[in-house]
Amino acid sequence: MSRSLTPVNRVGVDERAAALGRRSIKTTAKREGIKLATSMIDLTTLEGSDTPGKVRHLCAKAVCPDPSRPEIPSVAAVCVYPALVGVAAEALRGTGVQVASVATGFPAGQTSLDVKVVETREAVAAGATEIDMVISREAYLAGDDARVAREIEAVKEACGDAHLKVILETAELPTYAHIRHASELAITAGADVIKTSTGKSTSGATPGVVLVMLEVVREHLWKTGRVVGVKAAGGVSNTKTALHMLVLVKETLGDDWLTPDRFRIGASSLLNDLLMQYAKLDGGHYGRAEDFSKE
C-alpha cells in the first residue's frame, strides 16, 4: 500500500539536535536538571529473570531513590511485564508512583489483536495505570496504516482510564519521514504518549529521533490544542544524555513540557548515574557505584 510522506531534512534535524546537545549546564542548573530528570523516569525491568522480589526492590528505589538525599524526588513510574503488575501495584500503593506495564506482545508485537486487547485488560485489572504498547511494525512497513490505527484504537479502548503510550520502535523505521508519519498516526489513533523504542532494538532515543517526535507533538498542539506526551526510551543511560533530552524538550515545546505528565525517560541504568552525578555536585566527589543498588 502506498502512502504520502512529508519530507524531513535529516541533516537539518541532526544539526539542530547536536547544537542543542552542546549547551553547557553547570552547578545549580545541573543539580535541578538531575532532580527533574529523576522525576521523569519510568524505572524499568523487562527481563525473563524478573521476580516479585526484584520488582519490590525496584519499587522501593523508585519511591526513594537515595535515602541520604531526601530532596531527590520519586521517579514517575515503574514499568514491568504484565505478570508482575500486581506486585508493583501493591508495592507502590499510595506513593504517587505510577504502575506501567508493557503489553500487546512486547517487544515484537507479533500476536493477534484479540491477544493484545486481553493482555491490556488484564494488566489494567491488575493495577496498571499506564500501558506501553508496541505498534505492528510489519503492518506499518507494509503501508497498512489502517491496521496500525485500528490496533491502537482497540488497545486504547481496552485501557479504560489508564494512559496509553504507543511505542514506534524507531530503529525499525527507515527514515525521519516515517518516524514523523508514525507519530502522527499514533496520535490520531488515540495515543496519550508517543514513545521511541522498546529498548530491545539496536538504537532508540537518539537526539534526532526525539526532536522529530517533539516537533510532531508541537504541531498537533498548535492544530488541535490537545496535549500529547513523549517518552524517550532506549539508550538514555547517563546524565549527559538525559540533560540533552531536557534541553530538546525545553527548546521545542517550552517549560510547560518539563513535567512527568508530558515527558518521560524510559530507563533501567540511568537512575544510578544521575545519583552518582548528584553526589559529586553535593560533595565534590563521585559516589561509588556500590553505594547504589543495581535494581
TrEMBL record:
* Recorded catalytic activity of this chain's protein: 2-deoxy-D-ribose 5-phosphate = D-glyceraldehyde 3-phosphate + acetaldehyde
Q: Which InterPro entries does its entry note? A: Aldolase_TIM (IPR013785), DeoC (IPR011343), DeoC/FbaB/LacD_aldolase (IPR002915)
Listed EC numbers: 4.1.2.4
Entry's Gene Ontology BP terms: carbohydrate catabolic process; deoxyribonucleotide catabolic process
Q: Which SMART domains match?
A: DeoC
Is this entry keyworded Lyase?
yes
What does the record give under GO molecular function?
deoxyribose-phosphate aldolase activity
Gene3D superfamilies on file: Aldolase class I
- Keywords associated with the record: Lyase, Schiff base
Q: Which residues form a coiled coil?
A: none
Which pathway does it take part in?
Carbohydrate degradation; 2-deoxy-D-ribose 1-phosphate degradation; D-glyceraldehyde 3-phosphate and acetaldehyde from 2-deoxy-alpha-D-ribose 1-phosphate: step 2/2
Q: Which SUPFAM superfamilies match?
A: Aldolase (SSF51569)
Keyword Transport attached: no
Instruction: Give the EC class as a word.
Output: lyase
Any one annotated GO CC term: cytoplasm
The entry sums up its family as follows: Belongs to the DeoC/FbaB aldolase family. DeoC type 2 subfamily.
The name on file for this protein is Deoxyribose-phosphate aldolase
| Source organism | Solirubrobacter ginsenosidimutans
Q: What is the organism lineage in this UniProt record? A: Bacteria, Bacillati, Actinomycetota, Thermoleophilia, Solirubrobacterales
